[in-house]
TrEMBL record:
InterPro entries hit by this protein: AASS (IPR051168), NAD(P)-bd_dom_sf (IPR036291), Sacchrp_dh-like_C (IPR032095), Sacchrp_dh_NADP-bd (IPR005097)
UniProt keyword list: Oxidoreductase
Name of the protein: Saccharopine dehydrogenase
Alphabetical list of SUPFAM superfamilies matching this protein: Glyceraldehyde-3-phosphate dehydrogenase-like, C-terminal domain, NAD(P)-binding Rossmann-fold domains
Molecular function (Gene Ontology), one example: oxidoreductase activity
Pfam families linked: Sacchrp_dh_C, Sacchrp_dh_NADP
Residues of the Saccharopine dehydrogenase NADP binding domain: 3-107
Domain Saccharopine dehydrogenase-like C-terminal: 122-371
Amino acid sequence: MKILITGAGMIGSIVAMELCRENDVTLFDGSDAALKRVSSKEMNIELIQGSVFDEKKLEGLISTSDVVVIALPGNLAVSVAESALKQRKAVFDISSIPNDVLLGKIRELADENKTLYVPKIGIAPGMTNFLTGRGCVGLDFVKDVKIYVGGIPQKKESPMGYKTVFCLEETLQEYLDPAMVIENGNKKYVEAMSCLHNVDFEGLEGLEAFLTDGLATLAETIPAENMSEFTIRWPGHIQQIKNLIALGMFDKNEDDFEGMKITPREYLISHLAPLWKMEPAKGDKDLTLFRIVVKGTKDGAEVESKWETVDRYDEERNITSMGKCTAFSCTSFIRAWMKSLFNNNGFVFPEKLSVNDSLYRYVMESMAYHGVHFTEQHTTLKRY
């Protein structure tokens, strides 16, 4: 099968190197340096440099492909998604396209053209959606859903206890965007970084968890009475972020600085970028923390389903944990589709796929094969 992957960053390059074993893979990116990093691994991948805003070039590449994988920042992903759907090419999208665009024109295009489009199919969102949906299967009533997820360096000593593998601008924005939650069956927005509390994982105690706007499509599809998503960081991180916000360092208004026009946000990003960059070659190693708890009622009993993992930097493959978890979530669903374990057309919510037992088993086995092991517990809390 011919697969076009747009974006040769950490996630896109792992997806390309994984899928090229049994497919014809083309990797498209605007950065020559990013493409050269992939070529140095001597994989059988066609590398093409160019801009996603070069419509003629992009459309030409899509036209000769069977599947399009989008591994780009959200602001670059929309044009790729639209072009692929207009040409009726199956799309697996890891990007963070804003929900209003995603559930608006992207969904309309996919449904109108009866073309598969699976959005936000990484680890979070993605596996968070899939397993939340699985936890709701068979419930008479969904009482409460709590999602905990975070990528942190293994050593807290990193500046502010953090390193990132994603777009820094998008990471910073998460500290500002109001977080959607479901309370008593109603959607509402609360202040970002609110509901700060401690959470423990195996071998890791006293981590910080705080609300962020990560429910994505779950708020549209899961009829929960209460639902929220929390991001995890090393303790003390959030207070430092709040201090930067209070000092105006997140502002986007231009200031004069020694004859130059610059926004505080631009300066902050330029300063944090080298400090927060995850660089395995320099000894940086990360953790991915993941927990989903779904509570509800079934057959007259109060029940709970829980999935959890603490995943670490992959020493064997020399790839980050977050890269591994995100990329292999995507490739697991692509391979499942190629094996006809699901054959949906149009816009497909990941959380709606988990009712399929064969698909669920395949995805979980595939993740385990790639070294991402989820514990799974189902408990009866009370009988009425």
